[in-house]
Amino acid sequence: EFSVGMGRNLRIDEVQNHSIVAEDSGFSQLTFIDSQNLCRDVYSMMTIAALNTSNIKIGHGVTTPSTRHPSVTANATATIDELSGGRAFIGLGTGFSAVLTMGKKARPVTELRETIQFLQKYMNGQTATFKNASMNSEWIKKRVPIYVGVVGPKALQIAGELADGVIFSGLHPEMVKWNIEQVHKGAERVGRDPSKIELWNRTLIYIADKKEDAHREVASYAGTGLMAKYQVLIRETPEVIDLRNRIEKVQPGLLEEIYQLAKVWNNYDHEKTDAVHSRAVNQRMIDFMHLTGSPDRICEQIEMLKQLGVTNISTTVFTIIDKKGMMKEIGDQIISRFSN
User: Fold this and answer.
1) CB 157 within 8 A of CB 185
2) How many whole angstroms separate alpha carbon 16 and alpha carbon 263?
3) Number of Cβ within a 10 Å radius of residue 189
4) pLDDT per position in the chain (340 positions), as tens?
5) Could you tell me which residues are beta bridge partners of residue 130?
């Protein structure tokens, strides 16, 4: 399947037509960013999308317990689910731009576990506990799918234990394998079948005659993904040390380039075209994160990801100037080749 993320720099009156184009282009899921200092309200965008589409599934890309209590997330999402005829899902993370722009840090992974468990029980109509407070909903009786967008090994493993799907980034086969290994480790720890977990690879598809033609519109988002990884790569745990060794082996010098990128990063340039940090992003950094170039080359890479176990190619249009035009091109030249 293919999904698409939007909302970083859309006006609220643009959400309707962009959502319609996403559905008409063949995307199966549509996510909206939840970052209160950078974009419009996520539930307003989700509501507009729900009212103007009929098949595409709608969720966050992603929300966080750092800014919304999980009962608020559950209640709002269940309302969207009712409005859309059962098409809503929760995209959940520990926090990136939403918390960094407040001068805070992402929530600990223990809270991620507690949040997922709370949401699953609460939305099933049961009494659930979060931070020692027990509560239930008077009306929610149906749990929606939960997809967890995370980068660290412990969080990936928790997602493997509990979530319906996992959203991770990084296109290089070694990066993909490492992500999937962590998810499977968590699943196997609790006796869960790893094949039942949906694996979304969050990237950016940009169709162009030459990769160089895509640089301006994709470099910033590549930097965003690499900065999220930087927060993990600087840790000294066995899993992260293994990841650093594997990256250095297949992409010598890339780690140092990521560390240099961190020096010019600005939280408000997150997912923004022509961000200052784009100048520190080179072609191999883009190739490490994104699918750019001719349709044939992009499809070859998607086939490779499929063979590794990826079940959903999750592109974004945050930094793309002609968002609707690119979604239509992806539908015509990429999604159509993978349709059943």
Assistant:
1) yes
2) 38
3) 12
4) 999 999 999 999 999 999 999 999 999 999 999 987 889 999 999 999 999 999 999 999 999 888 899 999 999 999 999 999 999 999 999 866 666 666 776 667 889 999 999 999 999 999 999 999 999 999 999 999 999 999 999 999 999 999 999 999 999 999 999 999 999 999 999 999 999 999 999 999 999 999 999 999 999 999 988 988 998 999 999 999 999 999 999 999 999 999 999 999 887 877 889 999 999 999 999 999 999 999 999 999 999 999 999 999 999 999 999 999 999 999 999 999 998 6
5) 133
Report which residue type is found at 98.
A
Candidates 46, 50, 51, 16; CA nearest to 34 is: 46
Q: Are 26 and 331 in contact (CB under 8 A)?
A: yes
pTM of the model: 0.94
Q: What are phi and psi of 162, to 5 degrees?
A: -125, -30
Extract the tokens encoding 157: 């493993």
Instruction: Determine the length of the chain.
Output: 340
Q: Please give the helix or strand (H or E) that residue 23 lies within, else none.
A: helix 15-24
Give the dihedral of Cα atoms 173, 328, 8, 203; nearest 10 deg. 0
> Count of CB atoms within 10 A of residue 254's CB?
17
What one-character-per-residue DSSP string does 201-235 give? EE--EEE-SSGGGGHHHHHHHHHHHHHHHHHHHT-
Burial of residue 340 (number of CB atoms within 10 Å: 0-12, 13-18, 19+) = exposed
Contact 267, 212 (CB under 8 A): no
Q: Measured between alpha carbons, how far is 257 from 42 in angstroms, rounded to an integer? A: 33
d(CA 328, CA 325): 5
Helix, strand, coil percent content, the chain, rounded in steps of 5:
50, 15, 35
